[in-house]
Amino acid sequence: MSQQSEIVCRDRRGHRLHHNVITVKPILIPEEPRLVKPKLHLVREKTVKNVLPKSLYEPLEEIAKKLPWEDEYRIDAFDKVYWAAHNASCYKVFLTYFIVDILFVFKILNSNLMDTLKQENLDIAIAYGSNPCQLAVTHILAVPTIYFDLEGLTDETLIASGSPLDLSYPPSHCNTNENDHIMMKFMRHSFCYLKEYLAQSELPFIASLVSERHRLLDGPITKMFAEDYTIKKRYNGFPDVDQLKRHSAAFFVNTDPLLEYQRALPPHVIPVGGLHIDHPKPLFAPWNTTIESAEEGMIIVSLGTQADSGYMTEKQRLAIADALSKLTKYRIYWRIGPNMNRLLQTTNSLEKDLPKHINLTTYIPQNDLLAHKACKLLVTNGGMASIMEAVAHGVPIVGIPLYGSNRHNLRKVQYKGLGVILEKTELSSASLLKAMKAVLEGSKHKTIAKEMSKEFKSRSESPFAKALHYIEHIGRHHSNAYLGSRYIIFILKLNILHMVINY
Asked: pTM of the prediction?
């Protein structure tokens, strides 16, 4: 969808800033109105309807029902169906057009998206990670781009940004085995980083051999734009999207130094974790009334919005329900999601036998609940948005990683002492209850959570203000000259080679 508004903010000196903001987000899947976040009053929407065919959006729904609840932990299986959808969406939205005075006018339900964007004379663009189509479009628009890694600090961003690498520690995003001997860890990390470097090498044959992401997403998007007749007439060769990624003006990463391993980052890699967090809103009925009835406080159980908790196995449902039923002094909100009725229908007498201190719900105002003084624990799958909300509000975590980057994110939580991890293969009533009691009854995790929150809130600028500052700078100067060096990539190559030879 395309949104335009004049946003009034203030800079560090308190001066008012007026910005015309355009956001572009094609609608890929039919949206359920109650799941769509209300628009800000400053935002006017224009929707570019680009509903995918059933053959592409049904796999998105199916994998959310099955993958998270399988015993096997898979890192990128969730991504593959999204890559197919991205490719189809990119072709449909951005490469179906005719030419009018060199401006692109698209035949998507009478949309004139690129024409509109061209006429806006944009100063800067923000492209989300794992969406190379956006990078290609911003290249056509000839505007500096900020690359936003929503998954945190992934290997993809580390390599693209030219960040210094230590192959022994901290761990690579792709290495899921933390019990290896130190030498084996080094070899695994070396392999992961080398694989990612080759994936971004701009050598299509090699990149496709080592990287499914390049074979199924980056490569097809590059080819799509490079082989388009009109683009070929306008450009003397279209660059590889990995080259566009590396030449981003800055890299926003959805994490925070409080949560990250100790590592050196170049100045154009900017942590903005917590950027999405709103000011907590007052809780009204039934939330406030049920919280008040709790003797010891409140617990939130939410295993993510992409994973459909209505389809977890019966063994998993009963294990969680039995563990929660024993914590009778707490008010527990267990978010199931839109398929809550299916969970109740397929699990014998779950709703009937559930104690009154447990509330099953399709939705929770998570940020507002975490900010409440009575909140004592968050049980989460390890999405970065939830982790950053817990950091901001000082709530310790019990993490159950389900897929993708969950495990990598939660290992940071455990490393920093903010919480503990319970693998889904080890999930039982006894193990979950033990993990929850360890956090609820011990002082270590609670103390660290409160200290993190105090540090997070005491900074001179919020993540939003920091992001706004860099957006302002790059948009005003159309440059990141003082932020980073284009020679870092060459140094990175030598660094990887040097470490591999020495070990």
From this structure: 0.85
